[in-house]
Specification:
Blueprint: H1 3-15, H2 21-28, H3 34-44, H4 47-53, E1 57-59, E2 76-80, E3 91-94, H5 118-123, H6 127-143, E4 148-149, H7 173-188, E5 193-199, E6 212-214, H8 217-221, H9 224-235, E7 239-242, E8 246-247, E9 250-251, H10 256-265, E10 271-273, H11 283-288, H12 307-314, H13 320-336, H14 353-367, E11 369-373, E12 386-390, E13 398-399, E14 414-415, E15 428-430, H15 434-441, E16 446-450, H16 455-463, E17 467-474, H17 491-499, E18 505-511, E19 525-528, H18 536-544, H19 582-585, E20 595-597, H20 607-613, E21 630-640, E22 647-656, E23 662-671, E24 679-688, E25 693-699, E26 707-709, E27 714-717, E28 720-727, E29 736-742, E30 745-747
Parallel strand pairs: 3-4, 4-5, 5-7, 6-8, 6-20, 7-10, 12-16, 12-17, 17-18, 18-19
Antiparallel strand pairs: 1-2, 2-3, 8-9, 11-19, 13-15, 14-15, 21-22, 22-25, 23-24, 23-28, 26-27, 27-30, 28-29
Helix pairs in contact: 2-3, 3-13, 6-7, 6-14, 7-9, 14-18, 15-18, 16-17
The structure holds beta-D-glucopyranose (BGC).
Amino acid sequence: MKLSQLFLLSSILVSIPSFAHAEEATWKDTSLSPEARAKALVKAMTQDEKIQLVHSLYAIPNGPKNLPMPKGALGSAAYVPSIERLGIPAQQITDAGLGVANPGNVRPGDAATSLPSGQILSGTFDPKLAYEAGKMTGAEAFHRGFNVLLGGGVVLARDPRIGRNFEYLGEDPVLAGNIVAEQVKGVQSEHVVSTVKHLAFNNIETNRKKIDMKIGEKEGRESDLLAFEIAIKKGNPGSIMCAYNKVNGDYSCENSYLLQLPKKDWGYQGYVMTDWGGGHSTVKAANAGLDQESAADQFDNKIYFGKDLQEAVAKGEVQQSRLDDMAYRVLYALIQVGAYDHPATKSDQPEDVAAHEAISQKIAENGIVLLQNKQNILPLSTTVKNIAIIGGHANEGVLSGGGSSQVTARGGNIKLKTGMQTWPGPVSYFPSSPMKAIEALAPEAKVKFAAGDNIHEAVKLASQSDVVIVFATKWSAESFDNANLSLPGNQDHLIESVAKAGKPVIVVLETGNPVEMPWLNNVDAVVEAWFPGTSGGPAIANILFGKVNPSGRLSITWPKSLAQVPYPKITNAGQRWNEDDPVKEDKPDLSGIATFNLDVDKANVGYRWYEAKKITPLYPFGYGLSYTTFKYTKITLNNNLSEKNPTITAEVTVENTGKRDGEDAVQVYGTMPDGSPSRLVGFNKVALKAGESKTVSIPLALQAIANYESKAHRWEMPAGEYTITAKSNALSTEGVKTTVHLNQLNLAD
Ligand code: BGC
């Protein structure tokens, strides 16, 4: 090598950002704040390293562009390579909120625990269980070497047909926001970044990649965005996923209002990533506040946050400080949850499978809802002699929802050969058979099964039995909404026919949403088991036989029919758009984009709509029966109305007035001085022995009984009298109430 070449080489070496030991000490120093450590890291990074950090690569072979899996990836939704010289771990990014997914068996044979559907988790009304749910999923992710989990979902269920309601947490912002916040904390306690999604108004699945959701600021802040606000402020998730849909004209992932709201108003320090195929631009998105482009190499039209971003920064179209901020936010999240200091590596140690499945089962047992129980037909006696089990593949397993959140259960999923075969299908059952669990609980009984496709055979079996349990199912999945609320196929006819056999009939529903039940008056009991997760079979059996006293409540109002819902007709509901070819679908031919105006329910999502319109649904939000009875006997309020941080806590006394021990979901609703529809302001779950009485302290979410004032840019509680009621569901006229008179209160944003 010539001397001149040596000089050149040494000058190149000098120009690579060297980091002084003092700086390295800063980002490695665990006694310093994540902020200080992340800042020090950004300072030490090259431009290429920053760019590398802000876009992920699809990590499943045979993706939309058929690229090989990136080297170092474990196989999952996405991957960002490590930056070893700075100790920055690779981001191994996996779905999702219900458990660790294994799409297309990319990690051969890797099975995991699936939680029950989101309606069950929120239906527990139990923040402690939500934390346990997150912790279990976080532990399973970490064990497999993942450090970013793409859950939990917190879009409000505005309609009972929506394909992904089973991934979300119901219709109420206070319930959904608080439950997901605990879930996030649980995930992150395992050094795994949790992702709150999909910001925002991803209330419709069909045509989700093009639809433009329209809503005013006040209405948005008081509904879906309130759920996100609670989730983000309380849960402090490392990441947020922006949605596919547009909101008020701009794609969510380049919508500066949506992307700035958490950062500017809620003090959010983490990063915002796109949904897969949700990236549409470089400069607009970066300047709006997007931080990471997901699976950029295969899902978007091009990699917007790669070379293009680097050039945009060089040209000054995106400030260097913005790119630094993107990198900072990703690093902050990794440091904050401990993913930097405790890098996840695939472990070959056995997991505590039994403990994890027990958590999933406990959640199912606490969230499954007993809807009807005529003459206390349930719980069943374990000495019953002849049990007929009909339909729903109950001899084999329990139904699960489809799409990216689908988990592969231990023992393998049972995939139906009928119905949708391509993604988000096939329709899959977890191998947790309710029938086997029933046999185990009633060992002396003859338990016989009829598949239900032959109605004549089913009726014959029913007439020879002492009790009939019909399992009725309705699948739902990501990417499309159900067309109606009917049970598919012959199931209504089957139930009607079996009910005529004159034997007690119990219907167990496994559905992603409420369904119409034309046979309701002809059956004795109805149990809504939603999608009950990988231990769903024993959970259902334990409820049927009273080993567990049901305490789940509806987190979504159950209409009598679609005529009662705010948007009876949703164009294209039931249709799938071209999800198989997202790249083609996202070509910027934006002609004919559908808009969906949320101008009917506005902020009055769910039960508030029914209250405002004086419509009596079949079952309201919060409804659910128990094998015992509860009574609210007293409510008092403790107020601390200081200017800075006003708080009100309700002390609610609840009594178990029945003969069995049980748990009650204590619900507190508030009404504002103008008498606008009430809203859940607080909740908790309490266990009470038969005859026992307890006083529960419930802090009230004051934003739920405040107005968001767009001009003043703050939450205001107008002066006047507020009514605070403890009652057993949102529309109940019973319960105990108290009032409080307030002068105008402004809440900190
Ligand atoms: C879904 C996201 C999911 C992502 C990665 C998208 O289709 O909308 O929720 O996390 O895929 O699988």
